[in-house]
What we know:
Elements: E1 13-23, H1 29-34, E2 36-45, H2 49-54, H3 63-74, H4 81-95, E3 101-108, E4 120-127
Antiparallel strand pairs: 1-2, 2-3, 3-4
Amino acid sequence: xxxxxTMTITQSSIRLHDxxxxxxxxxxxxxxxxxxxxxxxxxxxxxxxVPVVSDSVEDTLNYAALYDVVxxxxxxxSQLLEHVAxxxxxxxxxxxxxxxxxxxxxxxxxxxxxxxxxxxxxxxEINR
Length: 128
């Protein structure tokens, strides 16, 4: 038997899929007063080569803390989904200096546009 091969991690990320929130975003006053359903997905690029080997939570990014950043920003009403997504992105960068880039999608499940669709969303790709 030969020596074990050393693996090289070329990219690593942590993802939170389809987080659901009831929030008060929208251009129309009615949206900000009544609220609506939103879905947020987040992917953060972070070096996970240490926790892959160590199996220690101290060496990784705590995804519960990542969720807390998203939840905090979803509680603050905005007119535009663009603004919400930008605040989430900045909040992640501020809270986690080890994040090199991220992708965030904010989807309004039932936008007031009279269309039969699964929602309207904004997605931002953000680099530090």
